[in-house]
């Protein structure tokens, strides 16, 4: 592991002694294949960057095609002949609970690394990302011994039942906006159902995934049942194309999902693909809304995690009659938003994840300045690090770039409406369908609009409310399948129908 002068700063606070910071680094920055930590077979590495300082944190192995093959082979062996799918559900649940306990015990290190690698405030890493990851493993530990089929009545003299069996080797690819939590969303249901996993980390944020590999081993997950690789998109491409992979699960952009679908088709093999993708989620503020509540939730819905959320409330439609009052309340919150080093107390927003994302967001802001009225923000924050001012536009036409494209940054676009049917049509006029928010105190409006919106999640008088039992996924270009809850188990199980004659049963003629 190579470290440079960036380590003279620990968590944004100057320390004469850097030992504490170094102690929180992962003990391993290697690939995790068949229960072992190994270097890339080519020796190639890539750098992971501190988005606060634009300096190198450390070097991480770039997996090769040979490494992907080794990981898939290990997962294949673990599934076909290893103990994991042959354990009882109760035994698998005990191991997953142990993994959850270990995540909780290592919250300090994991949260610190999550904020260092991603740029999100340490407060959120400590109180949301890491404990929610542990809770997710614990939730699916409870499901491990409850996955079962059904007995089905037949019109003929036969007995029929179904078995829900693990699919096999699951190739999984996660994004960089919630690295630890997205790893949990993928791994936990797959393991609970008895599958083996090859997980590809984002090259932007690999560090917590490497610690997770250590904890999987410590928890007692058998060798080969979980394999974790770091590297570029070429590594993910090799995983999805591998003939030994039985199922693909991806969270990320719609564009990449289309490439994955094409890559799988080119292998000549049909395999199930589940995806949780991008969004351009609308928030609708009706004239009878509690405007303080609406402003608070729209603010949180867009700016949480620096706007780097697939379900961010990035299109806001406000009824013309409450436009002025709502906008004033919203801007007050944005004006008081503290941008700065994510390790400092009271910071609401750290840097975007890397230069590529920073440049992308700033490019959208420049387009927005030509498409509508800038109310606040619109510039880089500071002169070092990938910080963007919280930005709000209004009077943005529905066909404007910042109203149609996923920005994945702290940029909110607003417009007004006067008619309910009109705003429903405008909200649905998008290739996406991940989430939506409705703010109204009229139950008829809520019922009507929540049923009319084409979105996988509709929040009413709230936003960004998640629970492990509640499914999450999208309509249209926002994905196929659902993460979380019982629904996610269907991503990782095959249904087998068994039918046999009831010999000598006089009931049937």
Q: Can you tell me about this structure?
A:
By secondary structure, this protein is of the alpha/beta class. It has two domains: 10-277 and 488-493, Aldehyde Dehydrogenase, Chain A, domain 1, CATH 3.40.605.10; 282-460, Aldehyde Dehydrogenase, Chain A, domain 2 (3-Layer(aba) Sandwich), CATH 3.40.309. The protein is 38% helix and 20% strand. It contains 16 helices and 22 strands. The chain has helices at residues 19-23, 65-80, 89-105, 107-118, 122-143, 179-192, 207-219, 233-241, 254-266, 291-303, 323-335, 355-371, 401-404, 420-428, 443-452, 485-489; strands spanning 9-10, 13-14, 31-33, 36-38, 45-50, 55-61, 151-152, 158-166, 169-173, 196-200, 226-229, 247-251, 273-276, 282-285, 315-319, 373-376, 391-394, 411-417, 435-439, 457-460, 479-480, 493-501. It has a seven-stranded mixed beta sheet, with helices on both faces. A six-stranded mixed beta sheet has the order 11-10-9-12-13-21, with helices on both faces. Strand 12 (247-251), helix 9 (254-266) and strand 13 form a beta-alpha-beta unit. Helix 4 packs across helix 5 and helix 5 (122-143) packs parallel to helix 6. The model is unreliable at 1-20 (pLDDT under 50).
């Amino acid at each position: 592991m190579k470290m440079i002068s960036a380590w003279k700063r620990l968590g944004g606070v100057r320390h004469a002694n850097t030992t504490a910071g170094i102690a929180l680094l992962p003990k391993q920055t290697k690939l995790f294949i068949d229960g072992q930590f190994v270097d890339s077979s080519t020796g190639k590495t890539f750098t992971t960057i501190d988005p606060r300082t634009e300096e190198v944190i450390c070097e991480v192995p770039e997996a090769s095609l040979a490494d992907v093959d080794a990981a898939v082979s290990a997962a294949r062996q673990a599934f076909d002949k290893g103990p994991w799918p042959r354990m009882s559900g109760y035994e698998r649940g005990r191991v997953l609970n142990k993994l959850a306990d270990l995540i909780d015990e290592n919250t300090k290190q994991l949260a610190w690394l999550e904020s260092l690698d991603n740029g999100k405030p340490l407060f959120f890493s400590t109180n949301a990302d890491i404990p929610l990851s542990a809770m997710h493993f614990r939730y699916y530990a409870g499901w491990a011994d409850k996955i079962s089929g059904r007995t089905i009545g037949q019109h003929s003299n036969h007995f029929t039942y179904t078995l829900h069996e693990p699919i096999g080797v699951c190739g999984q690819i996660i994004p960089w906006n919630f690295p630890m939590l997205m790893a949990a969303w993928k791994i936990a249901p797959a393991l609970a159902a008895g599958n083996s996993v090859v997980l590809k980390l984002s090259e932007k944020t690999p560090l917590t995934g490497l610690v997770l590999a250590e904890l999987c081993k410590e928890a007692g997950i058998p060798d080969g049942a979980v394999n974790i690789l770091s590297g570029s998109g070429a590594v993910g491409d090799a995983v999805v194309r591998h003939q030994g992979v039985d199922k693909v699960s991806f969270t990320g952009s719609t564009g990449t999902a289309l490439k994955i679908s094409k890559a799988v088709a080119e292998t000549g093999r049909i395999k199930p693909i589940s995806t949780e993708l991008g969004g351009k989620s609308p928030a609708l503020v009706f004239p009878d809304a509690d405007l303080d509540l609406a402003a608070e939730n729209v603010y949180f819905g867009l700016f949480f995690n620096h706007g780097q959320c697939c379900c961010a409330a990035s299109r806001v439609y406000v009824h013309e009659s409450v436009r002025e009052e709502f906008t004033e309340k919203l801007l007050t919150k944005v004006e008081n938003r503290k941008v700065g080093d994510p390790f400092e107390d009271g910071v609401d927003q750290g840097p975007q994840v890397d230069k590529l994302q920073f440049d992308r967001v700033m490019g959208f802001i420049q387009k927005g300045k030509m498409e509508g009225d800038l109310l606040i923000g619109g510039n880089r924050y500071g002169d070092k690090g990938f910080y963007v001012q919280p930005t709000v536009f209004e009077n943005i036409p529905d066909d404007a770039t910042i109203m149609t494209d996923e920005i994945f940054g702290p940029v909110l676009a607003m417009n007004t409406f006067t008619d309910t049917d009109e705003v429903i049509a405008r909200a649905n006029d998008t290739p996406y369908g991940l989430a939506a928010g409705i703010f109204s105190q009229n139950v008829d409006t809520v019922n009507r609009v929540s049923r009319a919106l084409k979105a996988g999640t509709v929040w009413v008088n709230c936003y960004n409310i998640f629970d492990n039992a509640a499914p999450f996924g999208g309509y249209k270009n926002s994905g196929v399948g659902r993460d979380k809850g019982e629904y996610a188990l269907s991503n990782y199980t095959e249904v087998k129908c068994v039918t046999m004659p009831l010999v000598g049963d006089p009931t049937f003629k």
